[in-house]
Amino acid sequence: MDRGTPPPTLIYGGTVLTLDDAGTVLEGGEVLLRDGRIAAVGRHLTAAPGTEIVDAEGCFVLPGLIQGHVHLGQTFFRGLAEGRRLLPWLRQRIWPLEAAHDDDSAYCCTLLGAAECLLSGTTTVQDIGIGPGVGGLMAALADSRLRAIAGKCLMDGGDGLPERLKEDADRTLAEAEALGDRLAAGGRVRYALNPRFVLSCSDALWRGVRELAEKRGWPIHTHALEQREETDAVRRAKGRDEIDYFDELGVLDADLRIAHGVWLEPAHLERLRRRRFAVVHCPSSNLKLGSGVADVVGLKRASIPVGLGCDGTACSNHLDAFEELRLAALLQKLKHGPEAFSGRDALALATRDGARALGLGDEIGSLEIGKQADVVVLAGHGADLWAAPPVDPHDLVAFSASRAHVREVFVGGERLVSDGALVHLDLAQIRRRAERAMAALLKRSGLDL
Ligand SMILES: [Zn+2]
Q: Is the CATH number 2.30.40.10 carried by domain 9-64+367-418?
């Protein structure tokens, strides 16, 4: 649907955290959005007649947050798989629930998750998708107006996988390609190939993914090295670890983004820094499932791009990137010492570094002229974001702000959240539709919860 070009907008008077290379901060700064892009950043900018004006005095203005790994198709399953480690979590609850999705439930579930993302300042997601119902998921992403990279979640076997999720490798690849073909070139939703993880994909499926990635220029997004039991099971099944396995199948020659990477070893890093390889760190999910803590500092030292994601609400229970970036910083401080990870580092994970991890470093992730106009304004008038003048605003936002402060959200210059409320989506209606769709999904799943 062509929604037309949003009107130019001038955001003025706030503390602008550009997250550019130099970490430039402008007190009383201005950001001009025009034709979907950032047209100017500075002070005393001139606004043409017809420009919408946003008074951000006392507020913080920063790039829209980027989540490099989410499952919006699991939003309905929040709290339904508590107290389990990864493999039983998948086999006992998540896969049977995902297998019961149809287009309607997937649409409502994804839109509910997208609403939570927008209201908490996330403007870009990379979603690993679902199998049945993926058409509904893609439609909801498009209707949400989030910037997204998404696709069908691919699986063709493995222990405990329900029959409905066990697809023929050739057929599921053909469906994935057709789904990617339907996306408009240059649109806000882009395609990725999403094999779930090594244990649920055959060698033939991985080879097919590799060939399709090369043929179409699509990235590959998967889970790897999340939990010790999982990596042990991979060694038993494949005779080697995930990185050796990906290397032998040529998957490491593609544009590969893995979620987690908790169990990457130092010996892997030297090999991976020369590849188009990125890690998406999901600290809440890793803590909740007892997986471990990824070495983000070590990955950054090895020049491997690292982004951030909340994973799904079925494991982390939330889609709030502010909570996630704060937690990421605290964990790296615990691991490496308090000086090892600053507030600016934490914000970078969810902005500039996250953009690089998704191959979008030239497009999003900082407030610089020519980039997409993806911008968040945080209300800073309350007692909780007060600080004495010398404080670094990166530290203030990273360690003291939360989604409760999100006031305005722009994606491609389009205002999607205004005064803390969704502009184009009706949250009450989404919730009513979600209740009906989830009740029907539970019935189809056959689970006795
Ligand atoms: Zn995941």
A: yes
